[in-house]
Structures are given as C-alpha cells and as structure tokens.
Hints:
The chain is mainly alpha-helical. 68% of the residues lie in helices and 6% in strands. It has helices at residues 7-28, 33-44, 50-54, 62-74, 89-109, 115-134; strands at residues 78-81, 84-87.
Amino acid sequence: xxxxxxxxxxVKRLDQLIEETFGRAIDTAGMSRREWQTLNTLVGDPxxxxxxxxxxxxETTDASVATIxxxxxxxxxxxxxxxxxxxxxxxxxxxxTAREAVADIRRRMARGISESEFAVLTGALDTMITxxxxxx
Length: 136
C-alpha cells in the first residue's frame, strides 16, 4: 500500500498541479492566468471589487490589478468608465474559449469523485480554512 501523505503536502501539490495545468490551458487560449481570473470575475460580477475578489488567487494590490486591467483594456477585452469595468464582446469571446478549457480541466480533476464526495471534500477544506483563519 502506498504511503499516505500529510494534508499539507497534498494541498500544496494539488495547488501546484492546478496552477501548472490551468496556466497551460489559459495560455493556449491566449491569455495569462491573471487575465483569465480578472475576466472571469468581471463576467460573473461586473461590479466586483477586483482586489478583494482576486486576493485568494494572487497577491493583489490596486497597482497589480491596474496592470492586468490596463493590459485587458489595451487588448480590447475591457472598457473602463471611472471605477467600473465592462467586458467587451471580444473579451467575452476570449473568456468563453478559456472557460471551455477550464471546464475540461475541472471535469478531469474531479473524475472518479462523486458529487457527494466532492461536496464532503470541499466542505472539509472550508472548515479547515475557517479553523485556521479564526486562529489568526
């Protein structure tokens, strides 16, 4: 029987594999991972506070968010009106291409795991996160 690894190793290794796999897929779709996360956030919530929404994925500051949004504006994928962003038709098309690649990866990652098992797993991870955050 294979040696069981500790949770820290498993979570860290899974995170590395997610970053690598998603990064390659998003790159194939013609954007960076940060561009994907920004577009995906704005498609789902056009009024989102980007720094707050993206912080769990990458260290964000107003400057780092501005770098990504400026690049997306330069590509014609976003427009900006004051503090509000809008995803353009070109941006939505790019997002859809990347979304399909991401959906394929998510399906592959969860292969062999039932919906109920997945719910238990994500629930347990949420509890662990809450437990450690409350200990800060």
